[in-house]
Specification:
The protein starts with a strand and ends with a helix. The protein folds into two domains: 202 residues, Rossmann fold (3-Layer(aba) Sandwich); 176 residues, Glycogen Phosphorylase B (Rossmann fold, 3-Layer(aba) Sandwich), CATH 3.40.50.2000. The protein has 395 residues and is α/β, with parallel strands linked by helices. 42% of the residues are buried.
């Protein structure tokens, strides 16, 4: 099969190289690994130019925030059309965006169209204003006409059906997962040696973007309590984001700077080494996080590490102590601190949770399984059937 993948993404704090396309890089690599032809049309970010294993057609963007998505929509439409004239796609797959041009391209060339909704949109549900109205109108137009809408959680599926009126039989839940060949258990001592960490300490770790909704303010306060009771503990903070400076300032004011490693953004292939150095991994999402796929939990567990995570709906739906995750109420400093302290005090239990989490991800949420499910989803209406698409588009 031939795939065209469109994936506009923009983070206000990091317009030169956002990190939000990791799932689509993994998806493209796995599809190519199954023998499919995959062409991805990402914005021209540094990370886009570093991808290997599939075709990349990077789209230049105008630098101004208002024109950035417009420039992507126009240029990717033109370039996609030219590429499709040369090599017609069987499937056009795109992550939800304000422009429905991937749908139009799919219909023009008789391809199946799949839209991925991986989180609540921005502006969020229910926000008033002209831009919000236009955004939702465009989304409703496109989503109702796509052959399938892939959502990463069942909660997102409910929102897509209720907000946009998408028929239930077109909504398919395909959760995020982890590349279990890249993210795998490693010897803790070797990981610490590689990252030049003190082997005598115990490490709590977070990997992700530094945004308010990640609950990092709660994590820092919890760490202050953990460190007061176990002075050998250290905190590893892997990532960056718009709230990074505020979190560093919070840590400084609490006198925690000497015990925290701010690693910044690290290369994708180095992330498993940092996770491997951790005794306990954390995902302290805020209670108002909304519907999203907790990608970091899959990677933590794939590396065989126990996890303490906030019990928000999208986490509750997939994880429990039975598969390696200790759930705590979100935004509760004491609950987070006590759960982490319990695992630090019981290394055998921590090891058991990490082992079971690895098995859980390997069996159900490895990328091989997810991509097989996606290919099985599109195979029934391949090859092209332009008449069918024209009928669906008129509905």
């Amino acid at each position: 099969m031939k795939w065209f993948v469109f994936c506009y993404w923009y983070e206000p704090d990091a317009p030169s190289d956002p990190v939000g396309l990791v799932r689509l890089w993994a998806l493209a690599r796995q599809l190519a690994g199954h023998g499919d032809s995959v062409t991805v049309f990402p914005p021209r970010y540094r990370s886009s130019l570093l991808q290997r294993g599939f075709s990349i057609v990077s789209i230049p963007l105008l630098p101004w925030s208002v024109l950035r998505p417009i420039s992507y929509a126009v240029l990717s439409s033109v370039i996609g059309f030219v590429r499709a004239c040369w090599s017609k796609p069987d499937v056009v797959y795109y992550r939800w965006m304000e422009s429905p041009h991937p749908l139009f391209l799919a219909r023009l060339f008789g391809a199946q169209c799949i839209c991925e909704v991986n989180g609540e949109p921005v502006p969020p549900w229910g926000v008033s204003g002209l831009r919000s109205w236009m955004t939702h109108a465009l989304a409703a137009f496109a989503l109702r006409r796509c052959d399938r809408v892939v959502v990463l959680t069942s909660g997102l599926g409910s929102l897509v059906r209720s907000q946009y009126g998408v028929q239930a039989d077109r909504v398919v839940v395909l959760p995020s997962g982890s590349d279990t060949e890249v993210f795998r258990p490693k010897e803790m001592s070797l990981c610490r040696q590689e990252e030049q960490l003190d082997p005598a300490c115990q490490y709590i770790g977070f990997v992700g973007s530094f945004y308010r909704y990640q609950g990092l303010a709660t994590l820092l306060e919890a760490f202050a309590r953990i460190h007061a009771r176990r002075p050998s503990t250290r905190l590893l903070m892997i990532g960056e984001g718009e709230q990074a400076a505020a979190f560093v300032e919070q840590a400084t004011q609490r006198g925690l700077t000497s015990w925290i490693t701010w690693a910044g953004r690290v290369e994708y292939t180095r992330v498993p080494t940092w996770i491997g150095a951790m005794d306990v991994c954390v995902a302290p999402f805020c209670g108002d996080r909304g519907e999203t796929s907790p990608v970091k939990l899959f990677d933590y567990l794939a590396c065989g590490r126990p996890v303490v995570a906030s019990a928000i709906p999208s986490v509750n739906a997939l994880f429990s102590r039975a598969n390696g995750v200790v759930l705590v109420q979100p935004d509760q400093i004491d609950a987070l601190a006590e759960a982490v302290l319990d695992l630090l005090a019981r290394p055998d239990e921590a090891y058991r949770l990490g082992r079971e989490g690895r098995v859980f991800v390997e069996q159900q949420f490895g990328w091989h399984a997810i991509v097989r499910a996606l290919r099985d989803l599109v195979r029934p209406i391949i090859p092209h059937d332009p008449d069918r698409h024209r009928i669906m588009a008129s509905k």
